[in-house]
Amino acid sequence: MESLMKKAIIMGIALCYLCVNLLKAQAVTESFSTKDEEKQALFKNRLFVDFFTTFWLDLPDGVKQEGFNRGVNAALLYDIPLKKNSPFSFGLGVGVCSHNLYSNAYTYINNEYKVVMEAFPSGTEYHINKLSFTYLHIPLEFRYIHPKSEFKIGAGVRVGLIADIHTKYVGENTALLQYQPGVNRDVRLKSDKFANKNKMPIELTFHTGWKYFDVNFSYMLTKFFEEENPQMHPLSVGVSVSLW
Fold first, then answer.
1. What is the DSSP string of 49-118?
2. Cβ atoms within 10 Å of 122's Cβ, excluding its own
3. CA angle 61, 113, 235 (to 5 degrees)
4. Which of 239, 236, 41, 67 is nearest to 158 (CA)?
C-alpha cells in the first residue's frame, strides 16, 4: 500500500507540473487582442468540483445499499482548443475522486484471500458502515462552450490509479465481526487490507450546464476488485461547481 501511495503521489505531482508548464507556454505563445478573448481563455482553464451520489451495480446477493452514497471528485483541466477561439476543445489534467458505498454488508478478506461482502444479521444496529475508494486520475474530455451564452457540454474518460480502499464500521458487536466475543458495547473498526483491488479504474464521464454550474454523470467500466471477488461498479449522478 505504501509503495502504491508513493507512486500515486509522484504521478499527481508530475501531472500538476505538466499542467503548470502548459499554462506558462500558453501565456507566452499566445496574445489576446480583446478582453473578451482573455476572459474566455481563463474560463476554459477550469478547476471544478463534482458532488454526486453513487448507485452501485452488481452487488453480491443479500447486500443492500443505502439511498444516498455520497462522493466527490475534483480536477484541474488545461484547455486545448481545436483552433484559435473555437468553442470546441479538449480538456486534459489531473484530479482525485472518491466513491463511497453505504450498505448492510461487512466486507473482509477470507481464509482464501478473497474479498467477501456478507450482509449483517437482520436487526444489527450501526451508525456507520461504509466501503470507500479513492483514486488519482488523468481526466480527458471533449468539450463545447458557447462563446456568448456560456452553455457547456463535455464527455470524456478518467483513467486512474487507486490510492486508498478502506472500510469503516461503527456499531453493534456481532459474531460476524469476530471481535472480542462477549463485548456488548459499540465497536469501531477500520481496515485497509485489500490486496485484490483493480489498480487502474477507468470511468466514463459526461456533464452539461451553464457558466459555473453543471449536472454530471459517470459510469465506471472497470470493476473495483479483481476476478473471483465482488464485481460491483458505480454509476453516479450529481452537480458540479466550476471554481475557475
1. EEEEEEEEESPPTT--B-S--EEEEEEEEEEEESSTT-SEEEEEEEEEEEEEEEBSEEEEE-TTS-EEEE
2. 6
3. 40
4. 236
Residue with cell 471477488: 229
> What is the pTM for the complete model shown?
0.77
Instruction: Identify whether the C-beta of residue 136 lies closer than 8 Å to the C-beta of residue 161.
Output: yes
Other CB atoms within 10 A of residue 7 CB: 14
Nearest to residue 240, comparing CAs of 221, 220, 212, 219? Answer: 212
Other C-beta atoms closer than 10 Å to the C-beta of 183 total 10
CA 58 to chain centre: 18
How many CB atoms lie under 10 A from the CB of residue 79?
21
Per-residue pLDDT of the chain (244 residues; tens, 9 = 90+): 444 445 544 555 555 455 445 445 444 444 444 455 444 444 455 889 999 999 999 999 999 999 999 999 999 998 888 888 888 999 999 999 999 999 999 988 888 888 889 999 888 888 999 999 999 999 999 999 888 888 999 999 999 999 999 999 998 888 788 776 666 678 888 888 877 788 899 999 999 998 889 999 999 999 888 888 888 989 999 999 987 7
